[in-house]
Every structure is written in structure tokens, then in C-alpha cells.
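Sequence, please.
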């Protein structure tokens, strides 16, 4: 008589897991960061929540609003993250309160929240560096050659100075603390081309006129460091000026547009200490403006008249209880 095979030991079913990751704004240094220069980025209060529930095998519940290319891209990115975290038997669902594809870090927040949930479900370590490794797999699918700034900022959840030399696997990170509350008004310009397209069009201009573009990139990197010093001193006017000059240089690189510039100028006319595009830019996206009191600025009729979608966020410094 054949002996009954001992029942295979079942791995304990993971209990429901919830992981949150914030969106981000780039305060100074986008694009130049891809070429090894420093940049500053800070987390938003809004972000992405990933929920992982026990299932037969690893899978992603795709949001019904996502169609066509976006669906395929998210599925492919998820498959990479699932593989990198050991394919734990969970079904992951995502919920976001971030505007999508406007440069506020929604893809990085998806990557970090998903990485946290998957690693947790797999019983693996969830230190920042473990999360970054898995999230980078997703970011590579989304953006091809990301600098790593977006998902690093989301994983740290703090205002950071980030720099990654082009040959290095990882970036170096320093948390920048601010003695004063640092508050931004964030205004949405609108739809824009995907980051990978804007980055690749810029790369073509750099390849054609390397020394001219390299000079501008270097200056942008210096602004990021000057901005970090200004934040540490609590010198908001110097930080604002660095943002203005950074916006001018992004324009010189061909990364702004008439509707971005119009919003930047409107915000400056309303008293912003500095205003610039944030993220990849191109033809739309979002603009950030440094105000001492962004709530008061938001109440000004000029923004409502122009039907601008905007919100305020404190990105660093002491918070009122
Ligand atoms: O995708 P966005 O809009 O958050 O832009 C990413 C920032 C870039 O510097 C343009 C690209 C990168 O990989 O850092």
C-alpha cells in the first residue's frame, strides 16, 4: 500500500497589509539630476496606498479607470516588483489621491507603496534600501532611465538632497532640515507628455550640443546646493530666487511652455518668493510657488478666475500642532 505523502507545509497566509507612499515635488534640480548633479525633492501629504490581501498567487487589481497603454505599463512594472520581492501570494490594489502624470510623483509613489506591501507580504526586510531596490524595478519600467530621485524621496518621506553619479548604482541622500516651516502652493497646469519622452528629447539636444547644455546643467546643480544652504539658514528669499533662476534655466533647456510660464508669472505677481515648473515639464504638468502664507495666496481671486487647480503643502520645517 502506498504510503500517504505528508501534507506539504503551507506558508502562513499573509494577513491584510496596507502601505502608504507620498507623492513629491522637485524643489530644485530636475533633469540635471539625470546627469549626476544634485537636486532637492520633498514629499507631499498626498500619495498612494497599496493594500495586499491573501490570494492564491501574486497579482495586481488594476484600477478600472486605467486603460490601454497605462494598464500594460502598470502590469509590466508590477510583474518586475513582484519578481524582485519573491512573488508573495497576495493580490495588491492601489488607491491614489494624487493628480496623475503632472510631475507630482504618482508613479514613484505607486512603486514605493507596492514595494513596501510586497516585501512585507513576503516577510522580507522593509528597510528604506530594500524598498528602494524593488521600487526601482517599477520606476525603470515606467521611465526607462530614472535618476532615482522620485522614488528615493517617496521612500524617505523627507526633504532630501539627492545625487547619483551616472555610473553609480545608487544615489547619495542627505536629509535637509529646515528651521522654518517651508510651504508651497502647487498649481496644476494640465496634461503633458510622459517623462521618458521629455527626458529623451532633451538627451538628443545634449548629444548635439554637449558643452552648451553641460554648462546649464552644472548651474542647475549649483542652484540645488545653494537652495539647500538657504533652507538650512531659513533664508526663504534666497531659496525663492534660486527657484526663479532654475525655472529660467529649465526654459533655456526647452522644458517650459507658454502655459507653464503664464502660471509661473501669475504666481510671482501674487507675491511668490519664487516659482518654477516642477518635474519633467515639457508642455504641462505642475508649477510650485514658495509663499510665506500659501493659504492666503490660494484665497486670492486670480487663481479661481483662471480656473487653476491648486493646493498647498508644507514640505519641511516645524509644524503647528
Ligand atoms: O516624472 P517627473 O515629472 O516627476 O520627473 C522626473 C524628474 C526628472 O529629473 C525629469 C527625471 C529623473 O529621472 O530624475
Amino acid at each position: 500500500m502506498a504510503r500517504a505523502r505528508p501534507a506539504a507545509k503551507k506558508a502562513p497566509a499573509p494577513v491584510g497589509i496596507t502601505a502608504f507612499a507620498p507623492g513629491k515635488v522637485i524643489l530644485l534640480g530636475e533633469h540635471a539630476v539625470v546627469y549626476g548633479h544634485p537636486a532637492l525633492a520633498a514629499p507631499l501629504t498626498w500619495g498612494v496606498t497599496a493594500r495586499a490581501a491573501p490570494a492564491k498567487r501574486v497579482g495586481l487589481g488594476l484600477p478600472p479607470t486605467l486603460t490601454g497603454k497605462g494598464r500594460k505599463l502598470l502590469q509590466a512594472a508590477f510583474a518586475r516588483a513582484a519578481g524582485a520581492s519573491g512573488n508573495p501570494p497576495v493580490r495588491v490594489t492601489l488607491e491614489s489621491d494624487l493628480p496623475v502624470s503632472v510631475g507630482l510623483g504618482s508613479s514613484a509613489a505607486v512603486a514605493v507603496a507596492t514595494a513596501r506591501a510586497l516585501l512585507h507580504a513576503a516577510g522580507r526586510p522593509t528597510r528604506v534600501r530594500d524598498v528602494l531596490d524593488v521600487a526601482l524595478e517599477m520606476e525603470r519600467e515606467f521611465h526607462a532611465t530614472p535618476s532615482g530621485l522620485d522614488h528615493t524621496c517617496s521612500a524617505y518621506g523627507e526633504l532630501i538632497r539627492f545625487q547619483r553619479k551616472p555610473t553609480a548604482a545608487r544615489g547619495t541622500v542627505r536629509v535637509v532640515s529646515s528651521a522654518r516651516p517651508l510651504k508651497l502652493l502647487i498649481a496644476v497646469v494640465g496634461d503633458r507628455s510622459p517623462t521618458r519622452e521629455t527626458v529623451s528629447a532633451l538627451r538628443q539636444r545634449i548629444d548635439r550640443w554637449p558643452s552648451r547644455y553641460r554648462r546649464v546643467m552644472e548651474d542647475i546643480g549649483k542652484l540645488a546646493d545653494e537652495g539647500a544652504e538657504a533652507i538650512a539658514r531659513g533664508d526663504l528669499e534666497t531659496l525663492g530666487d534660486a527657484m526663479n533662476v532654475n525655472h529660467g534655466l529649465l526654459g533655456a533647456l526647452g522644458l517650459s511652455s507658454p502655459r507653464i510660464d503664464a502660471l509661473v508669472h501669475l504666481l510671482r505677481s501674487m507675491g511668490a518668493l519664487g516659482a518654477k515648473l516642477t518635474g519633467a515639464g515639457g508642455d504641462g504638468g505642475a508649477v510650485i510657488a514658495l509663499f510665506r502664507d500659501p493659504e492666503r495666496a490660494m484665497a486670492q481671486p486670480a487663481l479661481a478666475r483662471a480656473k487653476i487647480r491648486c493646493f498647498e503643502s508644507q514640505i519641511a520645517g516645524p509644524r503647528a500642532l
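The pocket of PMV is lined by residues 26, 30-31, 33-34, 103, 105, 143, 146-147, 149-150, 195, 199, 279-280 (CB under 6 Å).
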